[in-house]
Amino acid sequence: MLVYRLPRGLALDKPGSFCPKCRTPIGWRSNIPLVSFLLQRGRCTDCDARIHWRYPLGELLCALLALAAWVVFGASLEAMAAILVCAALVALALIDLEHGLLPDRLTLGLLWAGLAYSLAPKSSVAGMPVLLPFPAPGQAIAGAIAGYAFLWLFNRLWRIVRKRDGLGLGDCKLLAAMGAWLGLNGLPLVLAPAAVAGALTGLVIIALGRGSFSQEIPFGPFLAAGSVFALFLGPGLGLMPGLPGTPGWPGP
Ligand SMILES: [Zn+2]
Fold first, then answer.
1. Which value, to the nearest 10 degrees, does the dihedral of the CA atoms of residues 22, 27, 33, 35 take?
2. What is the pLDDT of residues 52-98, one digit of tens each?
3. 178-222: per-residue pLDDT in tens?
C-alpha cells in the first residue's frame, strides 16, 4: 500500500484498499497478504487485472524478515524495532526500483524513529555495552551525521569526476537513518555489501548488454539490502556483542 501510494502523493489513511485498475474496494477476504494473491492467481476478483508483483514480493519479504527478526532477537523490543525497520526498508527498495526516488516520509521517519529508539532502554543491556544495532544515543547521532555526510561527500567527488550525480539526497537520508539505527560502527557493515552488490549488478547489466557505464541504477535497494545484512548478520559475525541469542548475551 505504501509503495503504491507514497510516490503518487495519495493519502495513506483513506480510502481503504482498492484495485488500481477498476477502483473496486478490496474486502478483507481479498486483502490477506500473499494468501489472497495465491488464491486469486494474481488477479483482481472484479476486473481480472493482474496484481502488480510488488505486492506479493513486498509481503513475502516482510514475512521472511519478520521471521528473521524473531529468530535473531527473540521475543524482545529489539525484534519489534527490527520488523519496523525492515518493513520501511522493503517499501523504500520497491519504491526506488519503480520510481527512482526515496520518499522523505520514509527516510526521515526512519531517521527520527532511530534517534528516538536510541533513547529507549534495551532489553539486552545488562551491564554490557551494546554497540550495534540499536546503539546508545551518542553512537546513533554520530551514525546519522556520518551516514549523511559520507554519501553527500561521495556524490560531490563523483560530480567533479563524472560531471553528474552518482547518488540522490534520498540515498544520503537513508544511510543517515541506518546510522541512527545501527550506530557509527554499523555504517561500514551497510556500505560494504551495498557497494559490492551495486557494482556487481552494474557489471552484470553491462555484460548482458542491457546498459552502459553511464546508465543510472538506483542505489536505494542496495542500501536497503546492506542495512538488512548489517541488522541481522552483524550479531552473527560477532560484531554486535550482548544481543539476545548471540554468544555475548548475558541472559534474560
Ligand atoms: Zn480490479
1. -100
2. 888 899 999 999 999 988 888 878 888 899 999 999 999 999 999 98
3. 999 998 888 999 999 999 999 899 888 888 877 666 667 899 999
Instruction: Calculate the alpha carbon distances from 184 to 131, 135, 138, 140, 149 in Å.
Output: 9, 9, 9, 7, 12
- CA 62 / ligand 1 centre spacing (Å): 24
- Among 191, 216, 220, smallest CA distance to 205 is for 216
Note the residue count of the chain.
252
For residue 126, pLDDT over 70 is answered with: no
Mean pLDDT of the chain: 85
C-alpha cell read off for 244: 539476545
Alpha carbons 92 and 86: distance in angstroms, whole number: 10
166/159 Cα distance (integer angstroms): 7
Q: Which residue has the higher pLDDT, 6 or 194?
A: 194
- What residues does the ion ligand 1 have nearby, CB within 5 Å? 19, 21-22, 44, 46-47, 49
Peptide bond between residue 15 and the one before it cis (omega within 30 degrees of 0) = yes
CA-wise closest residue to 107 among 122, 92, 124, 126: 92
- If you measure from the C-alpha of residue 31 to the centroid of ligand 1, how many angstroms do you get, rounded to a whole number? 13
